Amino acid sequence: EAQVTQNPRYLITVTGKKLTVTCSQNMNHEYMSWYRQDPGLGLRQIYYSMNVEVTDKGDVPEGYKVSRKEKRNFPLILESPSPNQTSLYFCASSLSVIPNQPQHFGDGTRLSIL
Amino acid sequence: AQTVTQSQPEMSVQEAETVTLSCTYDTSENNYYLFWYKQPPSRQMILVIRQEAYKQQNATENRFSVNFQKAAKSFSLKISDSQLGDTAMYFCAFMKLSTGANSKLTFGKGITLSVRP
Hints:
The complex is a heterodimer. By secondary structure, chain A is an all-beta fold. Chain A has strands at residues 4-7, 10-13, 19-25, 31-38, 42-51, 54-57, 65-66, 76-78, 87-94, 104-105, 109-113. In chain A, strand 4 (31-38) and strand 5 (42-51) form a beta hairpin. The radius of gyration of chain A is 13 Å and the shape is globular. In chain B, the strands form three sheets. In chain B, strands 2, 5, 6, 10, 11 and 12 form a six-stranded mixed sheet that branches. Chain B has a four-stranded antiparallel sheet with strand order 3-9-8-7, with no helix packed on it. Chain B has a two-stranded antiparallel ribbon with strand order 1-4. The chains are: A mainly beta, B mainly beta.
């Protein structure tokens, strides 16, 4: 089954404790990105990747890192999480950067930083 | 920069009736895509419908259709014969058409739709 898989689905942690949210897709997609969803703000892009070893900042990259060592994986790293990073996170992928390719979203990761 | 505005935070509709969700956007681009995504309580992001700005014909997908007014920068979603399963948050989103660049979706704040039995 074609899908984007995020782990974990839920995480409660404390300020400053490094964490990684994994994202994996099995569709051989070139383009992957991360969004965060906050009430009243919709979804905002954090980082994106157009292919292996090619990543760039989205609209709200502060406090996050990403890597794209393999085509299928695009982890989101919070080196020193803070409470303002408490949010719902989505990974998305598409076949290429051509806009007529639909974006597939993962099921979301709910992060709570205490 | 593009902006997407959904001014209604929530709406309610009776089952089997029709409801229209509003969306306006601002852009200086001429070529772009517009989308409506549905987010049910399960939190999944589900693509409902897509409209290419260069197409004059409004997109339709079964009970879902859009009213795309390019000059007015308006993109509303009409849901006909509303069903209980349509209860969800709906997001309007914009994507610039530029190959080889970031396929970023710019989202509105969302609207919560409740379908009453």
